[in-house]
Each structure stands twice: as C-alpha cells, then as structure tokens.
Amino acid sequence: MKNTGSPVIPAAPAASGSSKKSLPRETELAPPDLQPQELKIEDAPARRMGFAIVGLGKLALEEIMPAFGECEHAKAVALVSGHPEKAARVAAAHQISEGSVYDYENFDRIADDPAIDIVYIVLPNSMHAEFTIRALKAGKHVLCEKPMAVSVEEGQAMARAGREAGKKLGIAYRLHYEPLNLKVMKWCQEGKFGRIRSFTSSNCQTVEAPNIRLSHALGGGPVGDTGIYSINAARYCIGEEPVSVTAVAHFPDDDPRFKEVPESVSFILTYPSGAIATCDTSFGTIEARRYQVLCDKGSIEMDPAFSYRGLKLKTKELLEEDESSDISEINLRQKNHFAAQMDGFCRAIIDDTEVVTPASMGIADLRIIAAIQESYETGKMVKIDS
Ligand code: NAD
Asked: Do 102 and 80 contact (CB within 8 A), yes or no?
C-alpha cells in the first residue's frame, strides 16, 4: 500500500441488510483543517490587577511574592523599599522593571504609574496608617496588613481617606478567604451546632530579638500581632461584638525582650448573647494556633486554625437517638491564603462589591485591642462600645 502520510484503513464490508453506505476502500481519517462552527473559543482573561508591595520583609518575601504565582487576578508590578540593593534583587527575581521600584521618599510618585492598581502595605504596624493614606491619596486601592494600625483614631483616619479618595481599603485578614474557616463561619451563622456558649483560643509563638514585634515604637506586642486572630475569629464564630473585656499581661523582669511589650496576655471577652471568649497570646511559648467553639448541641475545633497551611477542622455532634457523640474530621481542598486574599480583593474592585474584610472590621478589632490594653494596665474590667 502507498504511504500517503495519513493513516488509511481498509473499509469493513457492509453488514447484510445494513442501511449504512459502504465506505470506499481507502478512507482519509484526518479531518480537513476547517474549524467547526460550534467550536468554543475562550475569551482572553481580563487584565490582572497590578500590585505594589510596600515593605520587603519576611512576610512579603516568603509568602506574598510567591503567592502571585497562584493568583488569577493579581500580579506584582512594583516594589517599595528602603533598601535599594534588596529591592533590585527582588525585582529581578519577579520580572519587575527597575523603573517600578520606589522608596519611602519618592513613594507618592506611584500616582503617575498606571500599572499600579493596588498597594499592599506590609510594613511595621506603626507605618500602616501613613502609607495607606499616602497610597489612597495617590489614587490607589489599598490592602493593608493586620493589625490595621496602632490606634482606633489612626484606623478611622485611614477609612476616611479611603472614602475621600473613592478607593477600596481592605485589611488583610487572610482567613476570611480560607475554605475551612469559611465553613466554620457558615456553620456558626446557621447555628448548626446550636447556641454558642464558649469560644477558647490560643495564638502563641516564640519571638527572638531583634524583631518589629518587640518594639513599642513600631506597634509591636502580642495582642495586635497574634491575639488579633483570636479576637477576629471570636467575632466570626459568635457573630457579635464583645461588650466587655478583662485582661492580664505579664512583663517578665528578667527577659530583656519584654521591656516594651508584654510577653503574654490573656483576656476574657463577653458578648450580648452570653457567649464568653477566653483567649491567650504570647511571644514566649511554643507555637499554638487553635480555637474551639462549644455549643449546646456540638462543638467545633480548629487546630491549627491560624497557620499558613495544614489547617485541621474537627466537629463533634450530639446524636439525638442515643445521646452519644459523633466526631468528624472535615477535609477541604486547601488554598494559598495570600493568593486567595489578593484575588478576592481584586474581585471586589472588578465587580465593585463590598470588600470581605473592610476597614470597619479593622477598626472594630483596634477598639477591642485598646480595651484589652486598658484592662491589663488598670487591672479592671473595661466596657467596649461598638
Ligand atoms: P519584617 O520585620 O520581616 O518586615 C518589615 C519590613 O518593613 C522590612 O522589610 C523592613 O525593612 C521594613 N521597614 C521599613 N521601615 C522600618 C522600620 N522603621 N523599622 C523596621 N522595619 C522597617 O515583618 P513581617 O513579619 O514581614 O511583618 C510585616 C507586617 O505584616 C506586619 O504588619 C505584620 O503584622 C504583618 N504580618 C501578617 C501576617 C499574616 O499572616 N497576615 C504574618 C506575618 C506578618
């Protein structure tokens, strides 16, 4: 048989009585190069939104920059740093042009850079307010790391700047984009396990000097750094704002790390429904990143709950028939928290919807943080006005 380049098969003899037309003995199997009319061609993806990352420290370099690789709507287009050599290396590694590297002095020139849609503030807490307000005034949307700022007044000024600029301001509470914590939020809203009576949480770690977390001037301290996760999770589980807090703090005399910020703080928050949250946070223990919600018909346990990866969720449910308990471990496909958060913030801009973690949430947490500090400084229970 002559080799024509296309596979050729002999036609099968037609079955007797079959209405099928018999094929010629030599049949071309490859179709002609014509595009069928029903062929579905996807639209080109919309332009990814350009992020400028401000502050190239541990979180920015180890978590945020790599997360852009997993984003659908976000890409890194600019860097802002006080260290030109480091910034140049990071820019080269992420294909960011030299002209898109700014420092803290010429930062306001981002107003003239149309590639930048969003500024992500990853600086020490004491610098969040200044750079958020400057970025909003430059006409950019802002995603700001937690804690939003170092005082309620600063948080309110940031929110006002967002309103005046007509730009979105989101606080980087990544767990509001994380599937297991979202599942917990939904169950708690639906009352799946009944009335919530108790929330307990620990978010603790060891912090070695030098670290921005140990400096009062830079807005350090365990409550704003790690305790804030428990404060925020208590809100999304209990679904209310606390009405009072009682807190104690420990400043060890013999450890120079804790001259300016406490080593450990424990606090009890009470809620209008009668639910109570008991939380501790520390810079001087092994890592603990958990919460437990006890309800009248079951319980929820996340351990770890606040880590970047490997979160684990377990529930216990009272079975009506025999009053015994059913324990389940819930598995959901995990996502990169930072990629999900950046994409989520972009979606709110693209669709012009409410940001999932708005400035008002950041301010509500700052109000609780201020009350915790007042309580451990005065030794008294402090009422919290929302
Ligand atoms: P870091 O100390 O590693 O980085 C801070 C960066 O700010 C550094 O690049 C430093 O050079 C720069 N900087 C600018 N001015 C400075 C000054 N005057 N003093 C010190 N540093 C200065 O800190 P980090 O762990 O990357 O934390 C940065 C922010 O991110 C904080 O607000 C922190 O609360 C937040 N954070 C959030 C998460 C999260 O899971 N969402 C995790 C870690 C940190």
From this structure: yes
User: Is 180's C-beta closer than 6 angstroms to any atom of ligand 1?
Assistant: no
pLDDT over 90 percentage in the chain = 85
Strand partners, 294: 198, 299
Residue with more model confidence, 309 or 10: 309
Round the average pLDDT of the chain to a whole number and report it.
94
55 lines ligand 1 (CB under 6 A): yes
How many Cβ atoms from other residues are within 10 Å of residue 287's Cβ?
13
Record the pTM.
0.91
Ligand 1 lined by 294 (C-beta under 6 Å): no
Active site members? 146, 229
Using a CB cutoff of 8 Å and minimum separation of 24, what contacts does 373-377 make?
373/223, 373/247, 375/245, 375/246, 375/247, 375/267, 376/247, 376/248, 376/249, 376/262, 376/265, 376/267
Query: Ligand 1: distance of its center to the CA of 106 in Å?
Result: 20
